[in-house]
């Protein structure tokens, strides 16, 4: 179960334990996310994918264990330290988590104003670019309730990306999206990963896109995790793991070819 | 926040209306004196203040000119009453102060009765001539036992 | 028996813990008020939601309460031939008690519940977590403007309530029942004192604003991230705020008044 040690872990979890009441989610979880890699979290519902992302963001404290982001300890850090850590993180929530009283523009401006303290003309230019990147031009003045589910996802991704964090945490970026948008977001994520060297940690149920994108997979099960490259897990000795990936899986070779293609 | 002039205007009008209401209640209804008020303070000692309370009105010829600020017991075991009176009022120095009752059972107040002196009473000075509160009980007692004629009015 | 005592003890500890948490939340709120940026735009928006949108119900309720007071007061006073004190009766009861208390209860129901529900919904939809991840303090961006707006709006609404009610009493007493107009206002003005009555009334409204603002934002902020959590925090805000207003009313009256 121990992950093979990675050369440059950007996010590191050691011995993380967490229980919600009687339900044990993590029971001594160890895992690493390598700098500049794309890692996809897999697992059935309730296996703790979202919880793991929340732990990394410091939104949730584990019962035991250590979590380090870029060498800085998250657990037990002060508000100021946590702020420093979060400045390196971008997070896209499953439901978007856009502030529903603010327009798309104001939502995207928030991290730039509050975190980077940018000036208004720069903010406007950055928002233009970012909205174009996710294909939401012309929605600046709309409120979140006037957007469709897919548009909310894209706006949330734009908000997570706009401050150009070192690490991007995405909770189910592909759920509920049409195939065209899935491809578009996939391409965008691959691009920021390549051009900015951004570390991506995604949770996903979407097996085809997972196999196309991921450098490494982390399958959460039984309170721990099984890590490996897509090929390793596709040919893993445990039948449960193979089944999890196989049900809808693209041929194993697809990953490399699609990747170089984009 | 998206700027919205009509919303800002509505909030401005609301705050203005609220402040007007506060001002009306304070100044008109509550009698709050604005600015440097022209008030003078006088003192008077009584053997018996009866039911007189702070904030009771002070009147001259039936017109309200001020109020009782404080009532305390002095070392001479007399009641010392501090009066707050309109400072523009020129009271002669032989003014007398009497504790009266409005109606048979009404509240007690202080009536100032100006005398005929030419010199004015200096602010802060003590009114020399005072008339105590009449107690209904003692009046009735006097009347019932036939010892008095039932008040000096 | 022992178990009963145990449960009682547990409940008491729970209440003490709650109070401690509210105090800590109040502390972080007041720190948020003092730390920049001041967020005037959001405060104005919240004053609009709390003040302007509550204005109609506050004024209508005020006028109705004033008219009832005028009618009841007249019917009682006429028995003693003291109907010329109607202005004093209406004014004193309104300024000292009914104005701030009824306004507090109305605003709790109208705006406090909405505040708690809005924040609780933001908790349920991870909006506050989203803010935290953007290094934005949700207390500063979301809760502080709401609490400040409540503190600002409550005394103003209470004063408007009282003014509406005094004129409601005027309509009932003078226009309908025939008390002399001058008598109504002179009895009102001679019996009401600034420090004891008007300042005390404004103080009460201010304290109620703090109470409702604090409880509504706290309940919303600490709600469970579910729809049941949203409804629970809304209900708790209305119940706890209303009871606290009535209890605090007694203590402010006892400590301030004559």
CA radius of gyration of chain C is: 21 Å
Question: What is the succession of H and E elements of chain C?
Answer: HHHHHHHHH
> In whole angstroms, how far apart are the ends of chain C?
46 Å
> Unreliable stretches of chain C, pLDDT < 50, 5 or more residues?
none
Number of strands of chain B: 8
Number of discrete helical segments of chain B: 2
What proportion strand of chain C? under 5%
Main beta-sheet strand count, sense and barrel state of chain C: none
Q: What is the approximate shape of chain B? A: elongated
Layout of helices and strands, plus pairs?
The complex is a heterotrimer of chains A (262), B (153) and C (258).
Chain A: E1 9-20, E2 23-34, E3 38-42, H1 49-56, E4 64-69, E5 72-73, H2 79-86, E6 89-92, H3 104-114, H4 120-134, H5 149-161, E7 167-171, H6 179-196, E8 199-203, H7 207-213, E9 216-221, E10 224-228, H8 230-234, H9 239-246, H10 254-261
Parallel strand pairs in A: 3-8, 3-9, 6-7, 7-8
Antiparallel strand pairs in A: 1-2, 1-4, 4-5, 9-10
Chain B: H1 5-29, E1 39-46, E2 57-60, E3 63-73, E4 79-86, E5 96-101, E6 108-113, E7 126-127, E8 129-131, H2 136-145
Parallel strand pairs in B: 1-7, 2-6, 5-8
Antiparallel strand pairs in B: 1-4, 2-3, 3-4, 5-6
Chain C: H1 2-34, H2 40-50, H3 55-77, H4 86-124, H5 127-133, H6 138-176, H7 181-191, H8 194-221, H9 227-256
Helix pairs in contact in C: 1-6, 2-6, 3-4, 3-6, 4-6, 4-7, 4-8, 4-9, 6-8, 8-9
Describe the structure.
The complex is a heterotrimer of chains A (262), B (153) and C (258). Chain A has 262 residues and is of the alpha/beta class. Chain A is built from ten helices and ten strands. Chain A folds into two domains: 186 residues, Rossmann fold (3-Layer(aba) Sandwich); 69 residues, no CATH class. Chain A is globular and about 55 Å long. Chain A starts with 8 loop residues before the first strand and ends with a helix. The C terminus of chain A is likely disordered. Chain B is α/β, with parallel strands linked by helices and 153 residues long. Helix content of chain B is 23%, strand content 31%. Chain B has an eight-stranded mixed sheet, with no helix packed on it. The model of chain B has no long low-confidence stretch (mean pLDDT 79). The model of chain C has no long low-confidence stretch (mean pLDDT 89). Classes of the chains: A alpha/beta (262), B alpha/beta (153), C mainly alpha (258). At the B-C interface, helix 1 of B face helix 2, helix 6, helix 7 and helix 8 of C.
């Amino acid at each position: 179960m121990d992950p093979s040690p990675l050369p440059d872990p950007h996010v590191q979890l050691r011995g993380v334990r967490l229980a919600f009441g009687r339900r044990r989610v993590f029971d001594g979880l160890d895992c690493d996310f390598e700098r500049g890699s794309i890692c996809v979290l897999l697992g059935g519902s309730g296996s703790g994918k979202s919880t793991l992302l929340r732990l990394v963001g410091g939104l949730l404290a584990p019962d035991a264990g250590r979590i380090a982001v870029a060498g800085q300890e998250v657990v037990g850090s002060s508000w100021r330290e946590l702020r420093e850590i979060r400045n390196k993180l971008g997070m896209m929530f499953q439901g978007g988590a856009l502030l529903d009283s603010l327009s798309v523009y104001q939502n995207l401006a928030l991290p730039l104003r509050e975190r980077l303290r940018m000036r208004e003309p720069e903010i406007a230019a950055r928002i233009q670019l970012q909205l174009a990147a996710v294909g939401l031009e012309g929605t600046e003045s709309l409120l979140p309730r006037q957007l469709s589910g897919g548009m909310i996802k894209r706006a949330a991704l734009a908000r997570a990306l706009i401050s150009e964090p070192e690490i991007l945490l995405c909770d189910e970026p592909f759920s509920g999206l049409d195939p065209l948008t899935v491809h578009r977001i996939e391409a965008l994520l691959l691009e920021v990963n390549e051009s900015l060297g951004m570390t991506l940690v995604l949770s996903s149920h979407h097996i085809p896109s997972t196999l196309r994108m991921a450098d490494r997979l982390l399958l959460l099960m039984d309170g721990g995790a099984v890590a490996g490259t897509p090929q390793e897990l596709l040919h893993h000795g445990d039948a449960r793991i193979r089944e999890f990936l196989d049900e809808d899986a693209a041929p194993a070779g697809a990953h490399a070819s699609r990747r170089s293609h984009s | 926040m998206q700027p919205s002039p009509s919303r800002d205007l509505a909030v401005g009008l609301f705050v203005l209306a609220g402040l007007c209401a506060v001002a009306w209640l304070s100044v008109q209804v509550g009698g709050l004196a604005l600015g440097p008020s022209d008030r003078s303070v006088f003192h008077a000692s009584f053997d018996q203040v009866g039911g007189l309370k702070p904030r009771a009105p002070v009147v001259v010829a039936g017109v309200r000119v001020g109020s009782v600020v404080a009532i305390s017991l002095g070392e001479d075991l007399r009641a010392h009453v501090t009066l707050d009176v309109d400072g523009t009022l020129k009271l002669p120095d032989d003014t007398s102060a009497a504790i009266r009752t409005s109606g048979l059972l009404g509240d007690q107040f202080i009536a100032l009765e100006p005398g005929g002196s030419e010199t004015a009473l200096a602010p802060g000075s003590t009114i020399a001539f005072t008339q105590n509160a009449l107690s209904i009980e003692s009046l009735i007692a006097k009347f019932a036992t036939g010892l008095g004629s039932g008040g000096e009015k | 028996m022992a178990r009963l005592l145990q449960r009682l003890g547990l409940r008491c500890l729970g209440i003490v813990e709650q109070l401690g948490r509210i105090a800590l939340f109040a502390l972080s709120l007041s720190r948020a008020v003092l730390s920049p940026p001041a967020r005037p735009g959001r405060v104005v928006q919240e004053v609009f939601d709390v003040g302007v949108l509550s204005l109609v119900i506050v004024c209508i309720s005020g006028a109705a309460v004033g008219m009832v007071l005028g009618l009841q007061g007249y019917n009682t006073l006429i028995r003693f031939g003291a109907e010329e004190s109607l202005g004093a009766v209406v004014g004193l009861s309104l300024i000292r008690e009914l104005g701030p208390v009824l306004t507090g209860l109305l605003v709790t129901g109208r705006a406090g519940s909405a505040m708690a529900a809005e924040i609780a919904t933001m908790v349920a939809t991870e909006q506050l977590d989203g803010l935290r991840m953007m290094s934005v303090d949700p207390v500063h961006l979301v809760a502080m403007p709401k609490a400040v707006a409540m503190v600002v709006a409550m005394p103003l609404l209470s004063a408007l309530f009282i003014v509406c009610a005094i004129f409601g009493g005027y309509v009932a007493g003078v226009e309908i029942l025939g008390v002399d107009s001058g008598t109504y206002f002179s009895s009102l003005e001679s019996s009401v004192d600034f420090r004891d009555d008007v300042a005390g009334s404004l103080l009460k409204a201010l304290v109620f604003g703090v109470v409702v603002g604090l409880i509504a934002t706290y309940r919303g902020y600490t709600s469970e991230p579910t729809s049941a959590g949203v409804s629970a925090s809304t209900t708790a805000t209305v119940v706890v705020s209303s009871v606290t207003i009535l209890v605090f009313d007694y203590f402010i009256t006892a400590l301030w008044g004559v």
